[in-house]
From TrEMBL:
Gene3D superfamilies: N-terminal domain of ligase-like. Residues 132-545 form the AMP-dependent synthetase/ligase domain. GO terms for cellular component: endoplasmic reticulum; Golgi apparatus; lipid droplet; perinuclear region of cytoplasm; plasma membrane. It comes from the Eukaryota. The chain crosses the membrane at residues 24-47. InterPro entries: AMP-binding_CS, AMP-dep_synth/lig_dom, ANL_N_sf. This is long-chain-fatty-acid--CoA ligase. PROSITE patterns: AMP_BINDING. The gene is ACSL3. GO terms for biological process: long-chain fatty acid import into cell; long-chain fatty acid metabolic process; long-chain fatty-acyl-CoA metabolic process; neuron differentiation; positive regulation of Golgi to plasma membrane protein transport; positive regulation of phosphatidylcholine biosynthetic process; positive regulation of secretion; very-low-density lipoprotein particle assembly. Keywords: Fatty acid metabolism, Ligase, Lipid metabolism, Membrane, Transmembrane, Transmembrane helix. One of its GO terms (molecular function) is protein domain specific binding. The keyword Cell wall biogenesis/degradation does not apply. Its EC number is 6.2.1.3. It comes from Gallus gallus.
């Protein structure tokens, strides 16, 4: 496998590196490594559990339940029966939380950092950025959260909310989001979740389609987004802010009442809850209607039942060894995303603490953290963290930029340690000396205590995965799942350090591969069966809200009554039962000459270049070549322009046809190194001076590309690059 990582050296590059280091120094380094290895290896091997870990990494993780082509694969831990509940009798989410509250009563559960100071910081460009200085985390116990949730649920009933009716939450990730969710689970209200970064039209669509009369939000979102669209939501009667004081605006339609979460909880505390037992949910009741981030158009509402979510988190929890009260999880991804909601429910059900953060305050260098003060990971020191590939790619590139700025000696020492550790972990060994001396500063970027990183939402590049394994000194559990499968599908085991794979099926589900003739993928292929990935199990959701046609298309039921989700992703099963995602039906485009191009494959091969912050490949059946839109790394492109003697503003550099050609040369070299076919390599590109963020509407909250929106945004450039008006 060819990597774009400058740290992973070929044998020739290693020899060149050795010549660049003083021979005496090189001998000394090699001697120290040899002595250290000899002295520590035997006791470490005996007492560290490495022998067992190596054995586990080589074991078969999943097997087909029958020997027929296309037979479903199951985890070896659930060959005869799929898992569906975390704890006996806890078959709904309210029972799971009550069990956890009873078991972990006074233990800390939800943590929030206090804001000590806010100030405006004027940038050299004249822009004003909000900066904050944050204090310590303050915590609510399991008992505290339970009482707040009970009171809030009862208060919603006072406002007229009925069981099995919809209520929306449109709010940033925070403790109040989880409290509101637990209240809805207890009272059998169907929680409609919407991303805080959705555009106005998407928000209006979700709220009107679900006919909600009450929405839970933050004061900031109410003052900005909701205020502009509230007149387009005719059924809305109550807005509940999780923060701030009760207030109204004259612009709000008559009849819409604004409450605070605290005031609703106060109503609930006084209310008679004697008949609340009748409202308790059953496993098949809908817990969440989760609106997707709309990567392919209008957001769809996925109906997820209590038993769907419980089955999913049961499977996820089984892949996290020693999960319990000592763990601290940092929550910063959108709770409206199934990855974050599932991860937090796994933690809540196992006695873990959840400390809340945001992408703007996560690290010391984050955009809202005042220089010299601490980001959330530094203060919280989490042991568990979930991330999407885009965030991991950013961390990787930031660290690589710092490595490139090191002195020659420091950089060479880092590369030697990196490659030494890569060889060791591939054999199942650890490198405590390198971890403490070389990688300690890198590890501190995430607080220094992370023991497992869970990555989901999109494929993670092999180079980034290896980098996180090595420099953050912890396994990266790459997972695969969809909103439609309650987030569950596969997760790699912690002792599996292979890259490019997403692990074996979780114990809650089974996976089979369906032939896709158009793409040339068959479950009889050798050496590995290939095809469209179908997920079956109790975690497979009910379908799409008010969209029976799409539900019938994406979900099927077999002769045994098993419900299957057709994912649209193409995978292959390896001999040990682990799945690898190799293509996607929607990303496959047939060129004019008949060749098939996987746009995702092209993007994955080029995304990790230091020069590229983001990339979207585009192809048309009316043309014979691939083009691309590239968000360049500002520092790298500016340096390339300087070397080529090109002067101008950032916009002028990006709009320069000369610089487009220079970047194309870099992309072509990387594409050939990654073994892309000639017809897969972009022939023309457009450099974008502006980054793609969820706020721009060009990527989802999980930073997946919105191809439809990107195509519309760059339509003039597409016409220019193809020399035609045909889309």
């Amino acid at each position: 496998m060819v990597s774009n990582s400058p740290l992973e050296l070929s044998q020739g590059a290693k020899m060149k590196l050795k010549h660049n280091i003083n021979p005496v120094l090189l001998q000394f380094i090699n001697f120290i490594i040899l002595v250290y290895t000899v002295v520590t290896y035997i006791p470490w091997y005996i007492f560290s559990g490495s022998r067992q870990a190596i054995a586990k990494s080589k074991q078969v993780k999943a097997r087909p339940v029958n020997n027929r082509p296309g037979g479903a694969y199951r985890s070896v831990n659930s060959l005869h029966c799929l898992a569906s509940v975390l704890y006996p009798g806890c078959d709904t989410l309210d029972k799971v939380f009550k069990y956890a509250k009873t078991k972990y009563k006074d233990k800390k559960l939800l943590g929030t950092r206090e804001i000590l100071k806010e100030e405006d910081e004027i940038q050299p460009s004249g822009k004003v950025f909000k900066k904050v200085i944050l204090g310590k985390y303050t915590w609510l116990s399991y008992e505290d959260v339970y009482i707040k949730a009970v009171n809030f649920g009862n208060g919603l009933a006072v406002l007229g909310q009925q069981p099995k009716t919809n209520i929306a939450i449109f709010c940033e990730t925070r403790a109040e989001w989880m409290i509101a969710a637990q209240a809805c689970f207890m009272c059998n209200y169907q929680l409609v979740t919407l991303y805080a970064t959705l555009g106005g039209a998407a928000i209006v669509h979700g709220l009107n389609e679900t006919e909600v009369t009450t929405i839970i939000t933050s004061k900031e979102l109410m003052q900005t987004k909701l205020k502009e669209i509230v007149s387009q939501i005719p059924r809305l009667r109550h807005i509940i802010t999780v923060d701030g004081k009760p207030t109204t605006w004259s612009e709000f339609p008559k009849g819409v009442i604004v409450h605070t979460m605290a005031s609703v909880q106060a109503m609930g505390a006084k209310a008679d809850s004697g008949n609340k037992q009748q409202a308790r949910p059953v496993p098949s009741d809908i817990a969440v209607i989760m609106y997707t981030s709309g990567s392919t158009g209008i957001p769809k509402g996925v109906m997820i039942s209590h038993c769907n979510i419980i089955a999913g988190i049961t499977g996820m929890a089984e892949r996290i060894p020693n999960l319990g009260e000592k763990d601290i999880y940092i929550g910063y991804l959108p709770l409206a995303h199934v990855l974050e909601l599932s991860a937090e429910l796994v933690c809540l059900s196992h006695g873990c603490r959840i400390g809340y953060s945001s992408p703007q305050t996560l690290a010391d260098q984050s955009s809202k953290i005042k220089k010299g003060s601490k980001g959330d990971v530094t203060t919280l020191k989490p042991t568990l963290m979930a991330a999407v590939p885009e965030i991991m790619d950013r961390i990787y590139k930031n660290v690589m930029n710092k490595v490139n700025e090191m002195t020659s000696f420091q950089r060479n020492l880092f590369i030697l340690a990196y490659n030494y550790k890569m060889e060791q972990i591939s054999k199942g060994y650890t490198t405590p000396l390198c971890d403490s001396l070389i990688f300690r500063k890198v590890r501190m970027l995430l607080g220094g205590k992370i023991r497992i990183l869970l990555c989901g939402g999109a494929p993670l590049s092999a180079a980034t995965q290896r980098f996180m394994n090595i420099c953050f000194c912890c396994p990266v559990g790459q997972g695969y799942g969809l909103t439609e499968s309650a987030g569950a599908g596969t997760i790699t085991e912690v002792w599996d350090y292979t890259t490019g794979r997403v692990g074996a099926p979780l114990v809650c589900c089974e996976i089979k591969l369906l032939n896709w003739e158009e793409g040339g993928y068959y479950n009889t292929d050798k050496p590995y069966p290939r095809g469209e990935i179908l997920i079956g199990g109790q975690n497979v959701t009910v379908g799409y809200y008010k969209n029976e046609g799409r539900t019938r298309k994406d979900f099927t039921i077999d002769e045994n009554g098993q419900r299957w989700l057709h994912t649209g992703d193409i995978g292959e099963f390896h001999q040990d039962g682990c799945l690898k995602i190799i293509d996607r039906k929607k990303d496959l485009v047939k060129l004019q000459a008949g060749e098939y191009v996987s746009l995702g494959k092209v993007e994955a091969a080029l995304k990790n270049l230091p020069l590229v912050d983001n990339i979207c490949a585009y192809a048309s059946s009316f043309h014979s070549y691939v083009i691309g839109f590239v968000v360049p790394n500002q520092k790298e492109l500016a340096e390339l322009a300087r070397k080529k003697g090109f002067k101008g503003t950032w916009e002028e550099i990006c709009n320069s046809s000369e610089m487009e050609k220079e970047v194309l040369k870099v992309l072509a070299e990387a594409a050939m190194a990654a073994n892309l076919e000639k017809f897969e390599i972009p022939v023309k590109i457009r450099l974008s001076p502006d980054p793609w963020t969820p706020e721009t509407g060009l990527v989802t909250d999980a930073f997946k590309l919105k191809r439809k929106e990107l195509t519309a945004y760059y339509q003039k450039d597409i016409d220019r690059m193809y020399g035609t008006n045909v889309k």
